[in-house]
Write a structure and sequence with these properties.
This is N-alpha-acetyltransferase 38, NatC auxiliary subunit. By secondary structure, the chain is α+β, with helices and mostly antiparallel strands. The protein is built from one helix and seven strands. The strands form two sheets. Strands 6-5-4-3-7 form a five-stranded antiparallel beta sheet, with no helix packed on it. A two-stranded antiparallel sheet has the order 1-2. A hairpin with a 5-residue loop joins strand 1 and strand 2.
Length: 113
């Protein structure tokens, strides 16, 4: 096993010969995340709330930062559908994320995949 120093200064152990496939998988994941930057997305949370905002960044713990975020509450018997609450910059802890939907490139109305 060899120690590998990553860009952020962290080191990790790697086995001989496995570095090439790990690097390719890491590059693919990185490119996928980069393609999502500045795209609108909807995040469903464990407590039933939904946040819609612009994807700005994430980290190793899967926390997500949304810009210009709006919060939507799940309608219930005691709370009817209300106007969204404007949050601005919001950090969503990764362990509270149920699903993420990315807005399709559309000129008309926002559609999520």
């Amino acid at each position: 096993m060899a120690a590998v120093l990553e860009e952020n200064g962290c080191s990790r152990q790697s086995s001989p010969g496995a570095g090439d496939s790990d690097a390719e998988a890491g590059d693919t994941a990185r490119h996928k995340l980069e393609s999502l930057l500045n795209r609108n997305m909807r995040i469903e949370m464990t407590d039933g709330r939904s946040l819609i905002g612009c994807f700005l960044c994430t980290d190793r713990d899967c926390n997500v930062i949304l810009g210009s975020a709006q919060e939507f509450l799940r309608p219930s018997d005691s709370f009817p559908v209300r106007e969204p609450r404007v949050l601005g910059l919001a950090m969503v802890p990764g362990h509270h994320i149920v699903s993420i939907q990315v807005e399709l490139e559309s000129v008309t109305s926002p559609q999520y995949i």
